[in-house]
Amino acid sequence: MHPGAAATVGSARISVSELNAAVVRDTSTSTGQLTGSTRGAAVQSSLATLIDNELLNDAAKAKGVTVSETDIQSVLANQRQTNGTDEGTAKANGIPLAQLHQVAHQAVLIDKLEAAVGKGSTDRTVLGQLLSVYLVSIAKDEGVSVSPRYGVWQASKLTVVDGDAFTSVQSPAASSPAG
After folding, report:
1. Which candidate, 7, 41, 95, 148, has a CA 20 to 30 Å from the CA of 158?
2. Phi-psi region of 94 (alpha: psi -120 to 50; beta: other; left: phi over 0)
3. How would CATH label the architecture of 5-175?
4. Pseudo-torsion of CA 74, 77, 79, 85, nearest 10°?
5. Alpha-carbon 40 to chain mean position
6. Buried-exposed string 117-129: b where 16+ CB fall within 10 A, e elsewhere
7. pLDDT tens by residue, 43-61
């Protein structure tokens, strides 16, 4: 494990301070105080999102997928037709207004990646599954390591889960019963 890192994805490092900022950002719309298990779940969720973002960026590079400002503005314009304003769109989606541009960027990136791995499919469920399989393969190729302080990486579900203090990467054998 790299000192000061909450996780690594290949050679990319996700710092503890980056994780802490993500937890604050990700929970800024929640109304309750984070304590105990809710804080732990929020930290794992935020860390999984940061890892997934790294994997999505790596997938985009591998597939030659880019997102332009025009793409983002097109999505936001469509949302304004439905919700009236950017503030209305943010509220309707339960996200802070300051994150709206990033969320739109992510949505466009995912759509383009799904099309790139989708082999002509238009079924949203199939496209999502194909992208997940592709991201899992990237995670395995690059290696994802999570500081034991935060849990373990579960590649098959692209998430961070509780683990013991001595495990930083969950092996496939650890998730299946011994036979």
Report:
1. 95
2. left
3. Orthogonal Bundle (1.10)
4. 150
5. 17
6. bbeeeeeeeebee
7. 899 999 999 999 999 999 9
Give the chain's residues under pLDDT 70: 1-2, 28-37, 164-179
User: Would you state the structure tokens that stand for residue 12, as one six-digit string?
Assistant: 């990319």
Going 160 to 162 to 168 to 169, the CA torsion angle's sign is negative
Quote the pTM value: 0.81
The Cα–Cα gap between 75 and 55 comes to 23
* Whole-number Å distance between alpha carbons of 179 and 170: 18
Length of the chain, in residues = 179
Q: Residue 99's closest CA among 60, 53, 39, 66?
A: 53
Phi, psi for residue 45 in degrees, rounded to 5: -65, -45
